[in-house]
Backbone:
């Protein structure tokens, strides 16, 4: 700190002269949760012009109380930060800083992911000079009709709060607003504070009290009594109700309340991708995953239910089977976010999941679902668990490649405590479908799959964020070769940071999931599996993923089958650093059990007979939906 700042702070203790960048970092470093932990676990940074001289200098000053983590890709480091917040159930988070230009625009995909999943991350991209003295600067996006446009404007559509700081004094209002959005259940999502590089370097006399902020309180609305009574009245009329548990149950720390409600009132529970783990996999009322990627028990119950209680879920198309799964039921929605609570013409309860469930249970008193319904739910849930055990323990036929279900079974068999101790991380493709159906999760947080935005490339970066948040747990990243090739650089970061990951790479030689969808819609296999892609004279490359992982500093091996995979998993669990296991898998064989219809528009006209047939099936399904 310069001499003037020291004298002002110690002698007067009323103002502190800091640059805008120093003020941002000092403020973030001072924030504490009610448990005394730092709200921000650190800052991921890739420095360049636009942030290295300002934010970089400030981060160096506070490197002990606010760690800075070096990454290799801006999108990936934002994914890591988002995963860190999700692993902490949104109670702790991280910031990321980039240069201007491509460093900033690389954040757009990650910001969209956080926006869709209602997850907090603070984005601090550098921005162009406010003074415009050196205009245009390197990497500046010039607009012919708006002189105020910069590349960071691309982040406005995917930020829950956006501010461009054009004077250091603006931080006095912008930073508290940003923190409120990041810690409010109804508002939660990405926040962008664009920081022009000349403003970062400007000094201002800040009130000393600004850097002694109060303990951060996490805000979630309490239920309005009349909304609880309306919801209770609807449930009292129901004989065959169903709970759909979404991510809001986990983020609202409502898992105990959910379990108590379900068992007191005899109501089965189905889990969305974000809500999986809210109940233990072997709970008698856990019917498993719901929807397009769900299991048969949850989907049968949902389609027969007369009232669905949706708790903390966005009700996106995979959950609702493109709005066909529970159209026969009346819907009650508990959600802190009013936008989500009002979907599907639901009776809305805008509230924190835990408080709302407790209040609704009290209002219902001794009401219970029909005994026959609860018994049916127990039976179906148990039958689904038996199906999971069967599907994940089937022998692989001689000469056949294993499928995803075989890999999932081997991973969990490699440690008897896997359901309680392991955290699985995945995103996009067929793997989330099989994991939602088949992964056994013993406690909240053991299932970390990004399927709100279905973003390929999240897996390894997300795994790094989870490991930084939960270093005591085994973090297992299951990823396909397509996603791995999109974004693998943070495997090197995991080695550098001593944040051990186990990466199980399923090599089906292309985009197997979308190849199957292509054919299901009548299309010819084209441009998805490598063999179906345009190639030059040398043909497709033979990619050695194990060798590639070793080049990034990880341990690795290629295995030939499921028995070898299970043995390799034991070696990986015992290893002292990130460990990649590559296994060839079958791109054509998904798990047939479970599932539900998903609307994918098929061309209305085509000269391909298979497309015409697929269109006829699509039209029948749309007609059956009724709208």
Residues:
């Amino acid at each position: 700190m310069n001499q003037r700042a020291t004298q002002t702070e110690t002698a007067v203790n009323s103002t502190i002269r800091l640059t805008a960048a120093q003020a941002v970092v000092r403020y973030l470093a001072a924030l504490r949760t009610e448990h005394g932990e730092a709200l921000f676990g650190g800052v991921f940074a890739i420095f360049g012009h636009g942030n290295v001289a300002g934010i970089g200098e400030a981060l160096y000053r506070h490197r002990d109380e606010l760690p800075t983590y070096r990454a290799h890709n801006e999108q990936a480091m934002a994914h890591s930060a988002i995963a860190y917040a999700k692993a902490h159930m949104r109670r702790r988070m991280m910031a990321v800083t980039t240069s201007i230009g491509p460093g900033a625009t690389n954040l757009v995909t990650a910001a969209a992911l956080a926006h869709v999943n209602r997850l907090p991350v603070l984005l601090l991209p550098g921005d162009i000079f406010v003074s415009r003295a050196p205009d245009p600067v390197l990497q500046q996006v010039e607009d012919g009709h708006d002189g105020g446009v910069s590349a960071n404007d691309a982040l406005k559509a995917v930020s829950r709060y956006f501010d461009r700081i054009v004077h250091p004094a603006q931080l006095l209002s912008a930073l508290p607003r940003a923190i409120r959005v990041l810690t409010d259940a109804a508002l939660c999502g990405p926040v962008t504070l664009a920081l022009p590089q000349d403003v970062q370097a400007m000094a201002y006399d800040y009130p000393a009290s600004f850097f002694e902020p109060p303990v951060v309180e996490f805000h979630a609305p309490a239920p309005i009594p009349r909304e609880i009574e309306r919801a209770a009245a609807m449930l009292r009329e129901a004989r065959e109700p169903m709970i759909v548990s979404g991510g809001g149950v986990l983020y609202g720390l409502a898992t105990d309340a959910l379990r108590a409600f379900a068992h007191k009132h005899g109501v089965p529970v189905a889990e969305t991708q974000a809500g999986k783990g809210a109940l233990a996999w072997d709970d008698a009322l856990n019917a498993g995953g719901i929807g397009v990627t769900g299991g048969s028990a949850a989907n049968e119950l949902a389609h027969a239910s007369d009232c669905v209680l949706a708790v903390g879920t966005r009700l996106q198309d995979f959950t609702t089977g493109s709005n066909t799964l529970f159209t026969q039921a009346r819907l009650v929605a508990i959600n802190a976010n009013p936008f989500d609570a009002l979907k599907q013409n639901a009776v809305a309860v805008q509230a924190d999941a835990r408080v709302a469930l407790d209040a609704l249970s009290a209002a219902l008193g001794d009401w219970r679902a029909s005994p026959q319904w609860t018994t049916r739910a127990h039976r179906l849930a148990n039958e689904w668990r038996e199906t999971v055990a069967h599907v994940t323990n089937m022998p692989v036929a001689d000469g056949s490649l294993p499928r995803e279900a075989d890999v999932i079974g081997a991973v969990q068999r490699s440690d008897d405590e896997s359901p309680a101790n392991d955290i699985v991380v995945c995103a996009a493709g067929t793997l989330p479908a099989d994991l939602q159906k088949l992964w056994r999760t013993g406690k909240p947080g053991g299932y970390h799959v990004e399927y709100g935005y279905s973003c390929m490339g999240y897996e390894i970066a997300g795994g790094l964020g989870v490991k930084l948040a939960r270093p005591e747990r085994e973090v297992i990243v299951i990823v396909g070769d397509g996603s791995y090739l999109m974004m693998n650089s943070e495997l090197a970061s995991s080695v550098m940071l001593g944040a051990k990951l186990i990466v199980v790479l399923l090599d089906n030689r292309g985009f197997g999931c979308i190849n199957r969808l292509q054919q299901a819609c009548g299309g010819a296999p084209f441009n998805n599996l490598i063999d179906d892609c345009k190639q030059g004279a040398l043909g497709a490359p033979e990619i050695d993923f194990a060798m590639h992982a070793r080049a990034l500093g990880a341990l690795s091996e290629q295995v030939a089958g499921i028995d070898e995979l299970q043995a390799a998993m034991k070696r990986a669990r015992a290893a002292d650093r990130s460990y990649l296991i590559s296994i060839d898998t079958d791109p054509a064989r998904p798990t047939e059990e479970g599932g539900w219809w998903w609307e994918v528009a098929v061309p209305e006209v085509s000269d391909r007979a298979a497309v015409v047939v697929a269109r006829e099936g699509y039209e029948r399904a749309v007609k059956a939906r009724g709208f």
The two ends are 65 Å apart (CA to CA). Confidence is low (pLDDT under 50) at residues 1-11. The first strand starts at residue 15 and ends at 19. The domain at 393-584 is CATH 3.40.50.970 (Rossmann fold).
